[in-house]
Amino acid sequence: SAVGAAIDNVPLSAASVVHAIVAFKLKQPLSAVSTQQTIKALVGGKSTLQNELVGDLQKEFGSRVPDKPEEISLQELGAAIGTCGSLGRCTQPLVTRMFSSKMPGGFSLSSARSVLQSAYGLGPQRQDALLLVALTMEPPSRLASEANAAAWLDQAAQAYAVQAGISYSASGSAPGDSALPGPTVSSAELLKLRQREVEHIQQQMQVLARYAGIGQRTDARAAKSEQAKARALQSGLDDITAELGDELIAGVRPQFDARKARRFDSSWNWARQDAYAWIQQTIAAGGSVHANGDQLSSSDEARLHQLQNRADMELVQMLAGTAKILSASSNPALEPAIKLTRALHAACKDALDSPPVFKEFSRPMQPETR
Questions:
Q1: Which residues lie across from 38 on neighbouring strands?
Q2: By the 8 A CB rule, do 352 and 316 touch?
Q3: Torsion angle (degrees, nearest 10) of CA 104, 108, 109, 112
Q4: Number of neighbouring beta carbons within 10 Å of residue 125
Q5: Where are the extended beta strands (E) located within the chain?
Q6: Mean pLDDT in the chain?
Q7: Which bin fits 12, alpha (ψ -120 to 50), beta or left (φ > 0)?
Q8: Which is deepest, 141, 143, 176, 229, by most CB within 10 Å?
Q9: pLDDT, tens digit, for every residue of 1-40?
Q10: Considering only CA atoms, which of 256, 247, 244, 275 is closest in space to residue 340?
């Protein structure tokens, strides 16, 4: 195909984006939506639709949207916002969704941009403006082939040319270029030559496959089966989208992001902290906190059980070292703390081979009248 002559790239205007968002939301072509009217007049008193439009504009432009945008004409609203660098948080997902749900598998957004660059000579910002026009011309259902998609894109390109006041032309040599033209070969002849090469290679592959006893069609049949399954699944998804709408589908998608996950795995460190705190409390209490396991209160039993559930070899070694240090002192006031430390050491050591378990330590209560 002919290569399109490059067209001057111009910044994407906010007025074009506002016009496209409103037309898309109203399910109307751009020509049916006057930029001289306000959003309030265009929605015809539908407050829900009006609020959705205002929300889309704020999502697209952020704080640049003036107060009460529904009471300003679309032209004035676009002028107040100014220019845009590219498609925003509202329009970009809409364009992406349109290509994923309405275009054939081999016709992606990147391939469409490549066609707009090579065949029509449009730069990135011109492409964004054209895609906004294409958004208002979204096909009602998935296009069957890449040829249909190319024809649809050409219709959008022609509509954009009328709106922007530009024309497409094939690129050629610059005026005054004195270089002699080289030999030319028609694209049809090149395609025929390439086709002959492909056929020759295929024949050689078939001969070798028959010689080796390899079935060349096995993978093709499997791929065809998978494609049929993919088409059935896509058809089901299209039916769900048509029934429930894009907003509901987008609203129920999972929001989990592995990059935002937080792992709270410091229980081993808190176990040491709790054990030290208990021992220090016993030392400060001067023996009023019982160290004998038979004399533990229900709260202390729960405390000990929590330590056992988090016990590891490092905690056991720490308790053994603490008991050794305390035992080296001749201070009789440390005796309760020594007994507690040894009891904690023995309990945590016994719990090393047991998984964490839950125990209920609260006392059963009954109604009491007075």
A1: 73
A2: yes
A3: -80
A4: 18
A5: 12-13, 83-84
A6: 85
A7: beta
A8: 143
A9: 456 677 888 888 899 999 999 999 999 999 899 999 999 9
A10: 275
